[in-house]
Amino acid sequence: MNGFETHRPVIVGVDRSEASRWAVRWAADEAAWRGLPLQLLHAQEWPTGQPEGEADRRWAIGLRAAGDTLLDTARLLAAERQPELEITPRLVEGRPVRVLREAADGAAQLVLGIRRLTEAHSALPIGSKGASLVGHLSCPIALVPEPPDDLSGPGPVVVGVDGSESSRAAIGFAFEEASLAGADVQAVEVRRPAEATQPDLVEESLVDLSEALAGWREKYPDIQVRREVLTGSPAPMLAAVATRARCLVIGSRGLGGFRGLLFGSTGRALVHRCTVPLVIVPNVPS
Question: Which InterPro entries match (predicted)?
């Protein structure tokens, strides 16, 4: 169990998109493997003011009933995936981003579905609202594309490494994920093209990777680990390496080539390029 978990639930945002269904599957696996409960969260943004008249009251009752039905469908999907899982549906009034952000404070992991290679669905509003979630949460956030290639496939857990505190937290998450999923770990460091002319760049980077991974390899001796050093733009390089991975894990704030990864065009490119679940890990809480 990592530093983000006590018995906090895995929380998944539920909406009417197909991406949300894939997110529920991912979240069910994560919760079951980690021995945690699963919470299905649906936020409804109600109009301001109180219902006026019978028509408004009927509309309000119908809206809540639709939310309950949506959550019940998600519960059945999660239970089919993991029959022994403890599942709690939760319908909350409020703006989705605010509701999700507040819920993340009590979560072991927050899971959202996103559309692949298009503007992200409302579950992850890109722009000022999206930035308020990604990179500012106290727990890991998993962005599950629509649809991922295979949520239970044999691919490795790919982790981006750059020596930052968030990167170290990402490495720990990646090893635990690999152990739970029965997967290998592929650790990748991406260097900027301007550094390509530096002598011994690859050798020095491989040494840095070995040092970053050393303690985790001792803790998980049965996990096969591959190191890889690439030169280029971080987002497309990481997305390309992770094409057949179980997931791609990165820190929320990095150094060097990863700095600002989640708050500009590079981060947006990674979200939309990545064809597997993207897990963004903050620093381990003290």
Answer: Rossmann-like_a/b/a_fold, Universal_stress_UspA, UspA
